[in-house]
Amino acid sequence: MDTRDLSLTAVFATLYFVVNTVQTMLGGTITYGPIQFRVADCLLALAALLGWPVVFGSTLGAFLANMYYWLAPIDVVLGPIANLIGTTIIFSLRRRRLISCLIGAFPIGVVVGSYLWLLIPAPDVLGFLPAWAAMIVSITISSLIAIGVAGYGILSLLSRPKIVQPLRSRGLKVYLES
Protein backbone atom coordinates (compact mmCIF):
# COMPACT_ATOMS: atom_id res chain seq x y z
CA MET A 1 0.00 0.00 0.00
CA ASP A 2 1.22 3.48 -0.81
CA THR A 3 0.14 6.80 0.70
CA ARG A 4 -2.74 7.16 -1.77
CA ASP A 5 -4.08 3.75 -0.73
CA LEU A 6 -3.73 4.65 2.95
CA SER A 7 -5.50 7.95 2.36
CA LEU A 8 -8.31 6.24 0.46
CA THR A 9 -8.59 3.67 3.25
CA ALA A 10 -9.01 6.51 5.75
CA VAL A 11 -11.62 8.16 3.51
CA PHE A 12 -13.68 4.97 3.30
CA ALA A 13 -13.37 4.29 7.04
CA THR A 14 -14.58 7.82 7.74
CA LEU A 15 -17.37 7.63 5.16
CA TYR A 16 -18.62 4.33 6.57
CA PHE A 17 -18.59 5.69 10.12
CA VAL A 18 -20.19 9.05 9.26
CA VAL A 19 -22.92 7.59 7.05
CA ASN A 20 -23.82 5.07 9.78
CA THR A 21 -23.82 7.80 12.41
CA VAL A 22 -26.03 10.15 10.39
CA GLN A 23 -28.40 7.32 9.44
CA THR A 24 -28.66 6.24 13.07
CA MET A 25 -29.38 9.80 14.18
CA LEU A 26 -32.12 10.06 11.55
CA GLY A 27 -33.55 6.54 11.56
CA GLY A 28 -32.12 4.67 14.53
CA THR A 29 -33.29 1.09 14.52
CA ILE A 30 -33.03 0.56 10.76
CA THR A 31 -29.23 0.84 11.11
CA TYR A 32 -28.72 -1.29 14.22
CA GLY A 33 -31.93 -3.28 14.56
CA PRO A 34 -33.20 -6.65 13.37
CA ILE A 35 -33.58 -5.15 9.90
CA GLN A 36 -30.20 -3.58 9.24
CA PHE A 37 -30.45 -1.56 6.10
CA ARG A 38 -27.16 0.27 6.46
CA VAL A 39 -26.81 2.86 3.74
CA ALA A 40 -23.03 2.74 4.34
CA ASP A 41 -23.05 -0.88 3.15
CA CYS A 42 -23.58 0.48 -0.37
CA LEU A 43 -19.92 1.50 -0.19
CA LEU A 44 -18.82 -2.13 0.10
CA ALA A 45 -19.56 -2.71 -3.59
CA LEU A 46 -16.86 -0.19 -4.45
CA ALA A 47 -14.26 -2.79 -3.49
CA ALA A 48 -14.75 -4.09 -7.04
CA LEU A 49 -13.57 -0.73 -8.40
CA LEU A 50 -11.03 0.56 -5.86
CA GLY A 51 -9.77 -2.64 -4.23
CA TRP A 52 -8.01 -3.01 -0.90
CA PRO A 53 -8.56 0.55 0.37
CA VAL A 54 -12.33 -0.13 0.35
CA VAL A 55 -11.83 -3.56 1.94
CA PHE A 56 -9.75 -2.18 4.80
CA GLY A 57 -11.62 1.12 5.06
CA SER A 58 -15.06 -0.44 5.36
CA THR A 59 -13.71 -2.92 7.90
CA LEU A 60 -12.19 -0.16 10.02
CA GLY A 61 -15.33 1.98 9.58
CA ALA A 62 -17.54 -0.87 10.80
CA PHE A 63 -15.27 -1.34 13.80
CA LEU A 64 -15.46 2.35 14.68
CA ALA A 65 -19.22 2.50 14.16
CA ASN A 66 -19.81 -0.62 16.27
CA MET A 67 -17.54 0.73 18.99
CA TYR A 68 -19.42 4.03 18.98
CA TYR A 69 -22.87 2.43 19.03
CA TRP A 70 -21.80 -0.24 21.48
CA LEU A 71 -24.09 -3.26 21.46
CA ALA A 72 -21.75 -5.99 22.69
CA PRO A 73 -18.13 -7.07 22.25
CA ILE A 74 -19.18 -9.78 19.80
CA ASP A 75 -20.67 -7.09 17.52
CA VAL A 76 -17.52 -4.98 17.67
CA VAL A 77 -15.42 -7.98 16.60
CA LEU A 78 -17.64 -9.98 14.25
CA GLY A 79 -19.39 -7.10 12.45
CA PRO A 80 -16.12 -5.76 10.97
CA ILE A 81 -14.98 -9.31 10.19
CA ALA A 82 -18.19 -9.77 8.18
CA ASN A 83 -17.37 -6.60 6.23
CA LEU A 84 -13.83 -7.84 5.66
CA ILE A 85 -15.06 -11.15 4.27
CA GLY A 86 -17.80 -9.56 2.16
CA THR A 87 -15.57 -6.89 0.59
CA THR A 88 -12.76 -9.38 -0.02
CA ILE A 89 -15.23 -11.55 -1.94
CA ILE A 90 -16.43 -8.53 -3.92
CA PHE A 91 -12.86 -7.54 -4.77
CA SER A 92 -11.86 -11.12 -5.63
CA LEU A 93 -14.86 -11.64 -7.94
CA ARG A 94 -14.74 -8.11 -9.39
CA ARG A 95 -14.81 -9.30 -13.00
CA ARG A 96 -18.42 -10.37 -12.41
CA ARG A 97 -19.60 -7.31 -10.54
CA LEU A 98 -23.26 -8.09 -9.97
CA ILE A 99 -22.47 -11.63 -8.85
CA SER A 100 -19.68 -10.36 -6.59
CA CYS A 101 -22.01 -7.84 -4.93
CA LEU A 102 -24.73 -10.44 -4.38
CA ILE A 103 -22.34 -13.09 -3.03
CA GLY A 104 -20.51 -10.48 -0.92
CA ALA A 105 -23.75 -9.69 0.91
CA PHE A 106 -24.15 -13.23 2.24
CA PRO A 107 -21.25 -13.28 4.74
CA ILE A 108 -22.64 -10.14 6.35
CA GLY A 109 -26.10 -11.66 6.66
CA VAL A 110 -24.84 -14.96 7.98
CA VAL A 111 -22.15 -13.66 10.34
CA VAL A 112 -24.11 -10.74 11.80
CA GLY A 113 -27.39 -12.64 11.85
CA SER A 114 -25.77 -15.59 13.63
CA TYR A 115 -25.09 -13.55 16.77
CA LEU A 116 -27.46 -10.58 16.58
CA TRP A 117 -30.48 -12.64 17.59
CA LEU A 118 -28.79 -13.13 20.97
CA LEU A 119 -28.65 -9.36 21.53
CA ILE A 120 -31.91 -7.99 20.13
CA PRO A 121 -35.31 -9.54 19.34
CA ALA A 122 -35.45 -11.26 15.98
CA PRO A 123 -38.04 -10.20 13.42
CA ASP A 124 -41.05 -12.40 12.85
CA VAL A 125 -40.06 -13.77 9.43
CA LEU A 126 -42.75 -15.99 7.97
CA GLY A 127 -43.82 -16.84 11.51
CA PHE A 128 -42.21 -20.28 11.59
CA LEU A 129 -38.46 -19.71 11.56
CA PRO A 130 -36.49 -19.97 14.79
CA ALA A 131 -35.08 -16.65 16.04
CA TRP A 132 -31.53 -17.30 14.83
CA ALA A 133 -32.69 -18.23 11.31
CA ALA A 134 -35.09 -15.29 11.14
CA MET A 135 -32.25 -12.91 12.03
CA ILE A 136 -29.94 -14.42 9.40
CA VAL A 137 -32.68 -14.13 6.76
CA SER A 138 -33.49 -10.55 7.76
CA ILE A 139 -29.89 -9.32 7.77
CA THR A 140 -29.11 -11.18 4.54
CA ILE A 141 -32.09 -9.60 2.73
CA SER A 142 -31.08 -6.17 4.05
CA SER A 143 -27.50 -6.72 2.86
CA LEU A 144 -28.63 -7.94 -0.54
CA ILE A 145 -30.62 -4.75 -1.01
CA ALA A 146 -27.86 -2.45 0.28
CA ILE A 147 -24.92 -4.12 -1.48
CA GLY A 148 -26.42 -6.16 -4.31
CA VAL A 149 -28.91 -3.56 -5.51
CA ALA A 150 -27.96 -0.06 -4.31
CA GLY A 151 -24.22 -0.72 -4.07
CA TYR A 152 -24.11 -2.33 -7.49
CA GLY A 153 -25.97 0.68 -8.93
CA ILE A 154 -23.45 3.08 -7.41
CA LEU A 155 -20.58 0.87 -8.62
CA SER A 156 -22.00 0.92 -12.15
CA LEU A 157 -22.33 4.71 -12.12
CA LEU A 158 -18.81 5.25 -10.78
CA SER A 159 -17.29 2.80 -13.29
CA ARG A 160 -17.96 5.12 -16.21
CA PRO A 161 -14.91 6.39 -18.10
CA LYS A 162 -15.74 10.03 -17.24
CA ILE A 163 -15.24 9.17 -13.57
CA VAL A 164 -12.53 6.53 -13.82
CA GLN A 165 -10.16 8.60 -15.96
CA PRO A 166 -9.77 11.48 -13.44
CA LEU A 167 -9.23 8.95 -10.64
CA ARG A 168 -6.47 7.23 -12.61
CA SER A 169 -4.92 10.55 -13.62
CA ARG A 170 -4.51 11.32 -9.91
CA GLY A 171 -2.69 8.05 -9.36
CA LEU A 172 -5.47 5.93 -7.85
CA LYS A 173 -5.59 2.25 -8.70
CA VAL A 174 -8.87 1.50 -10.44
CA TYR A 175 -9.93 -2.02 -11.32
CA LEU A 176 -12.12 -2.46 -14.35
CA GLU A 177 -13.31 -5.72 -15.84
CA SER A 178 -11.38 -6.76 -18.91
SSE blueprint and pairings:
Blueprint: H1 3-27, H2 29-32, H3 47-50, H4 52-68, H5 73-92, H6 97-116, H7 131-158, H8 161-169
Helix pairs in contact: 1-4, 4-5, 5-6, 6-7
Estimated radius of gyration: 16 Å
Helix content: over 70%
Provide the number of structural domains. 1
Averaged pLDDT, please?
A: 92
Uncertain runs are none
Main sheet characteristics: none
As for the CATH topology, it is Arp2/3 complex 21 kDa subunit ARPC3
Q: Please work out how many helical segments DSSP would assign.
A: 8
In the CATH scheme, the class would be Mainly Alpha
Structural class: mainly alpha
Order of helices and strands: HHHHHHHH
Q: What is the general shape?
A: globular
CATH architecture descriptor name: Orthogonal Bundle
Strand runs, count:
0
Beta-strand content estimate: under 5%
Distance between the termini: 23 Å
Key features of this structure:
178 residues, mainly alpha, Arp2/3 complex 21 kDa subunit ARPC3, globular
